[in-house]
């Protein structure tokens, strides 16, 4: 799920951070089941990100998430969410995000806008984030709400929002270095 800044040029500019450190990066989520928060992660994803801290508004991203790498903390739930009613990974193995714009919203905060695709459905997403530069790395952290039913995630009996909430908080943390 998914995602956040697409590298459109093959050559990075001198000030851009483009190399993702996968050991220091993550995509996670928090949903609620019968009112109780349930946290999980996606263990496999690619993030092609280019950000110049001096000009964050020029940043780009493309994030692709391997949905089979979901970890809800429960083996039975992991298998259930891979099925047709949830992610349908047989027909839709990945979720993706492609940025279209980055806005400076003030006080060191930014917002990336783009298109999120899950289960063949594409919708616009706004994801607020912060940038922190330190010791040769750039940390991008943010989160945004996603409405799972908009993408057909959790259909049939699982569409009951009293059992599983419609809103899911997606959290991302990308640590980048210069190439």
UniProtKB/TrEMBL annotation:
Residue span, Lipid/polyisoprenoid-binding YceI-like domain: 17-177
InterPro entries, alphabetized: Lipid/polyisoprenoid-bd_YceI, TTHA0802/YceI-like_sf
Superkingdom: Bacteria
Pfam families: YceI (PF04264)
PANTHER family assigned to the protein according to its UniProt record, in alphabetical order: PROTEIN YCEI (PTHR34406)
Protein name: Polyisoprenoid-binding protein
Organism, scientific name: Ferrigenium kumadai
């Amino acid at each position: 799920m998914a995602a956040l800044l697409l590298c459109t040029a093959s050559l990075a500019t001198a000030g851009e951070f483009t190399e993702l450190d996968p050991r220091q990066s993550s995509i996670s989520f928090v949903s609620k089941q019968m009112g109780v928060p349930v946290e999980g992660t996606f263990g496999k994803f690619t993030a092609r990100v280019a950000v110049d801290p001096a000009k964050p508004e020029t940043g780009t991203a493309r994030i692709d998430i391997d949905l089979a790498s979901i970890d809800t903390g429960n083996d039975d739930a992991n298998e259930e969410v891979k099925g047709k009613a949830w992610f349908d990974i047989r027909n839709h193995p990945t979720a993706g995000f492609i940025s279209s714009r980055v806005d400076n919203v003030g006080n060191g905060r930014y917002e990336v806008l783009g298109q999120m695709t899950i289960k063949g459905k594409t919708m616009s997403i706004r994801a607020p984030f912060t940038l922190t530069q330190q010791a040769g790395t750039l940390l991008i952290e943010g989160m945004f709400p996603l409405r799972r039913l908009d993408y057909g995630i959790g259909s049939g009996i699982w569409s009951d929002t009293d059992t599983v909430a419609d809103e899911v908080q997606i959290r991302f943390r990308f640590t980048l270095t210069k190439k």
